[in-house]
Each structure stands twice: as structure tokens, then as C-alpha cells.
Write a structure and sequence with these properties.
Layout: E1 3-4, H1 5-12, E2 15-17, E3 23-24, E4 26-27, E5 37-41, E6 57-61, E7 73-77, H2 80-95, E8 100-101, E9 106-107, E10 112-113, E11 118-119, E12 124-125, E13 130-131, E14 136-137, E15 142-143, E16 148-149, E17 154-155, E18 160-161, E19 166-167, E20 172-173, E21 178-181, E22 186-189, E23 192-195, E24 201-204, E25 209-210, E26 215-217, E27 223-226, E28 231-232, E29 237-238, E30 243-244, E31 249-250, E32 255-256, E33 261-262, E34 267-268, E35 273-274, E36 279-280, E37 285-286, E38 291-292, E39 302-304, E40 309-310, H3 311-342
């Protein structure tokens, strides 16, 4: 794809200083810019590179005042950071704007498909599946019977959706993610683990994004629910009957056990573990590798450690823990002194 500076400026509502016909075909960091590339300057720490970059076009803030000559064409905008992010979004939409059904895919005759859909090679679409408008299904995706996927969703290569699940609008599922696998539930009978059938489903609301190789288990009965705006990083596991509230973000490696309810607007760091059947209040912040074994009921609190402690308590405990060797040495010395005095 090739664009000229004038087109980019029009897209961003910016003004041009330099050659409006400057051609670009790729994006780059400002310090790595090459002819034909477009970059941006938002962080003042990188200002030095604007005088040496070979990028053909650079997006800058309206407030930028050059101290030396700049060879690149400049596009001035209110916020270079936001403008570049918008440009990346447009680029992504163009790149992913695929249409048509591959002859190597398998689509059930009872499936219903909206306008402008794309079905890639070796994708399998089951019976009574409903796809909305502009849904993109990449290679080797499998969608089970009676599943509904709404408008503008993207399922990247190797995503597996089991039967009877529902996915809302504008969702993105990255490669290898599995939705609707059985929940991990067994009963002990005569010394054996006997599987409890999992007959529920998964409901994913609008504007949800999941990274690569996430797993969301179907409910035992009822629904596992991912509310609108939730963002999951790679390798997140959500167990049966869990509910995650609106706009909560969860980093890689986190596991949430069955029937736990996570509030809205929570920020959960990597490798957090949560036991089952607990409640996490709205706005909770959990630091990396925190272990949560009971409900956290105060909204907006931050926690660290195993078991989870409020940050201030965790920090005090950490100081005491670090001092334990010195305290042990002092106690040992006092005991020796006491014994020597007694003798």
C-alpha cells in the first residue's frame, strides 16, 4: 500500500510542512526511519532523531519547534501519539479487509452469513451458525453448531469455538484461543474422578479482545460471561461459570477458578491466580503473581502477594521479611549472651 503525505494529513486532520507528494509505503520508528517510511515524534526524549531520520514523513505535535533543519516532510497534529495510533488502526483495517469464502473451507448449508464476510482456508463452520456482517474467519478456525458471532468480529488462525456460544460485536480473538471447552469439574465416586457434564455455554459481549491461546470454559449450566470491553492478554484461563465485568483488563498467565465474579474496571497483572466462588470488587488492582484466596470487597483497592494483601500492608510485611536474617542473628546472640551470663 502506498500513500502520499497529503492523504495522511487529510486522514488525521493535520497540516503539512514540506512536500505534500512525499510517498510512503511503510511505518517505522523515528530512529530507524528509511526513505518511503512514515514515523512520529511524541516523546521529547526522541527529539534528537528528527534531525537525522531518513523517514520521508514524520507526524509531530502542533507545538513542536525545530532547532535545526529537518529534511522530512512534517504533518502537524494536536497529538502525534493519538494520531499515529489512529493511523495504525486504519492500517490494520485495510490489512485485514478480506472478503470471500475459500473453496477449501467447509461451511454447513444451514449456516447464515452476513455481508462482506471472509472465510479462510480449512475453516469449518458448523450447523445453524450465524455470522454477522464483516466477520473475518481466518484459516483453520472451527466454529461449532448453533454459535452466533455478531458484526465486525475477527477470529485469527486456529481459533476454536465450541457449540452453542455467543460472541458480540467488534470482538477480536487471536490465534489458538478456545471458547467453550468443558469446565474442569469432577466428583469423587469409589476412588475415581467422575466427570460432571458441562451443558452451559459462553457469552462474550461487545468489544472484547482476547490474546493468543486463551481458554474460556463453558458453564456447568448457565453461562460463563465476559462483559463488554474486557481485554485479555495471551494465555489467560477463565474457568466455568466465571463472570468478568465491563472494561476489566487481564495480563498474561492469569487463571480464574470456577464461579468467581470479577468486577468491572479491574486491572489484573500477569500470573495472578484466583480461587473459585469468590467476588472481586469493581476497580480492584492486582499486582503480578498475586494469589487471591478470598473475596476482595472494597472497590478500588490495590493488592500484592500470596495471599493477597493491601499494598501498604504488603510493603510493611516485605520490609519485615527482609530483616528476618538480622533479627535471627540478634536473637541468637542474645540467647548466647544469656547462657554465658547464666554460667
Amino acid at each position: 500500500m502506498e500513500f502520499i503525505a497529503a492523504q495522511i494529513a487529510g486522514m488525521l486532520g493535520g497540516t503539512i510542512e514540506g512536500n505534500p507528494e512525499a510517498t510512503i509505503s511503510k511505518l517505522s520508528k523515528i530512529e530507524e526511519g528509511q526513505p518511503g517510511s512514515l514515523s512520529f515524534l511524541a516523546n521529547p526524549l526522541y527529539t534528537q532523531y528528527i534531525y537525522t531520520t531518513k523517514a520521508s514523513v514524520v507526524i509531530v505535535n502542533n507545538t513542536f519547534v525545530p532547532e535545526h533543519p529537518v529534511s522530512a516532510t512534517l504533518i502537524r497534529v494536536e497529538s502525534a501519539d493519538l494520531a499515529f495510533a489512529k493511523l495504525l488502526e486504519v492500517y490494520n483495517k485495510i490489512k485485514n479487509d478480506k472478503k470471500g469464502i475459500s473453496p477449501l473451507s467447509c461451511v454447513a448449508s444451514s449456516a447464515h452469513m452476513g455481508n462482506n464476510c471472509y472465510i479462510g482456508e480449512f475453516a469449518v463452520i458448523g450447523e445453524n451458525v450465524t455470522l454477522g456482517n464483516n466477520v473475518k474467519i481466518y484459516a483453520h478456525v472451527s466454529i461449532g453448531d448453533n454459535t452466533t458471532i455478531s458484526d465486525n468480529c475477527i477470529l485469527f488462525a486456529g481459533v476454536k469455538i465450541y457449540s452453542d456460544n455467543t460472541i458480540g460485536k467488534n470482538c477480536i480473538l487471536h490465534a489458538g484461543t478456545v471458547i467453550g471447552s468443558d469446565g474442569f469439574r469432577f466428583n469423587q465416586q469409589d476412588g475415581k474422578n467422575v466427570k460432571v457434564p458441562q451443558i452451559g455455554n459462553v457469552v462474550i459481549e461487545d468489544d472484547v479482545e482476547m490474546g493468543a491461546n486463551c481458554t474460556v470454559d463453558r458453564a456447568t449450566f448457565g453461562s460463563t460471561i465476559i462483559r463488554s470491553g474486557v481485554k485479555l492478554d495471551n494465555l489467560v484461563h477463565v474457568a466455568h461459570n466465571v463472570e468478568i465485568g465491563e472494561n476489566t483488563v487481564i495480563a498474561a498467565g492469569t487463571g480464574i477458578a470456577g464461579s468467581t465474579k470479577v468486577g468491572k474496571n479491574c486491572m489484573i497483572s500477569g500470573h495472578v491466580s484466583m480461587t473459585g466462588h469468590i467476588t472481586i470488587a469493581d476497580g480492584t488492582i492486582l499486582g503480578g503473581a498475586t494469589g487471591v484466596s478470598k473475596s476482595l470487597t472494597k472497590p478500588g483497592q490495590a493488592y500484592l502477594g500470596v495471599p493477597a494483601l493491601e499494598v501498604s500492608k504488603f510493603r510493611r510485611s516485605t520490609v519485615l521479611f527482609r530483616n528476618l536474617p538480622d533479627l535471627e542473628a540478634r536473637i541468637t546472640k542474645l540467647e548466647k549472651d544469656r547462657k554465658s551470663q547464666g554460667s
